Amino acid sequence: MTLTVHVQGIGVYGPGLTGWAQTADVLAGRSTYASAPIQLPAPEALPAAERRRAGTTIKLAFAVGFEAIRQAGADASTLRSVFTSSGGDCDNCHAILETLASADRAVSPTRFHNSVHNAPSGYWSIATACRATTTSLCAYDGSFAAGLLEAATQVRSAQEPCLLLTYDTPYPGPLGASRRISQPFGLALLLTPEAGRGTLATLDLGLSPRSAEALDDAALEALRKGAPAARSLPLLREIARGTRGRVALDYLEGVALDVGIQPAA
User: Which of 70, 89, 176, 216 has minimal Cβ neighbours within 10 Å of its Cβ?
Assistant: First the structure.
């Protein structure tokens, strides 16, 4: 059994990757990849008070989410959404644990508020005035695949578009030594039940015992392995090339997410 959905918009931010157009050129081999510190726009859609509280995780989710929506010409206030991340706000988690280990163990209300895994979806609802259903999940290194499956299931069952946002940032030490996420990476896909004007690709999702796909470029492969959200890169590469293909993506032990890609007609 397969799930078929259509990609109407893509947003990407990572080290040396700023937006889908530039990322597509890199992945398709039209330009050379050069890693560089990630540059994120301010989450301007948020009111000033919430904008001051927003950490890197929220800024990353907003950057990719709004790029995908703008590309598709969609209305953010109407879209159901799926947010997926392996660790959530890793900087905030570190800061809270650091406070609890100190003599003054009073955790700031803002840090506590931002510590929940669905904080980005809450900020997103505030910014977009969206009341559609939203889901937040995690699945360790398979978080992107789990989110893609969930979003595709919602698209097919509700026959409505769904925005998938996946994002990861590194843990500071000492947590970073135990859970290694080497670089920040974020991706958003706007998925629809039917193809339309501006469709970028059609995806057929299933499960497979195949091993997850790797990338030939050593620097891009290091990024793919370094952030769970970046396990999406082989899929993005096929979309960027604009050719028919099939990739296996990290999901569960012994089970990959098998994705067939058909370019836009």
Answer: 216
Q: How far is CA 257 from the centre of its chain?
A: 16
Residues 3-263: name the CATH superfamily: Thiolase/Chalcone synthase (3.40.47.10)
Name the 3-class secondary structure at 50.
Answer: helix
Strand partners, 14: 17
Percent of the chain residues past pLDDT 70, beyond the cut: 99
Identify the H or E element spanning 263: strand 255-263
178 is written with which tokens? Answer: 């135990």
Please give the pLDDT value at position 34.
95
pLDDT at residue 13 tops 80:
yes
- 91, 172 in Cβ contact below 8 A? yes
CA torsion through residues 156, 157, 161, 167, sign: negative
| Whole-angstrom distance, CA of residue 210 vs CA of residue 215 | 15
CA distance 201 to 59: 27
Secondary structure of 137-165 as H, E, C letters: ECCHHHHHHHHHHHHHHHHHHHCCCEEEE
Rounded to whole angstroms, the Cα distance separating 88 from 56 reads: 10
Q: Report whether pLDDT(94) > 80.
A: no
Mean pLDDT of 6-32: 97
Whole-prediction pTM:
0.94
Domains of the chain by residue range: 3-263
The confidence score (pLDDT) of residue 146 equals 98
Amino acid at 209: P
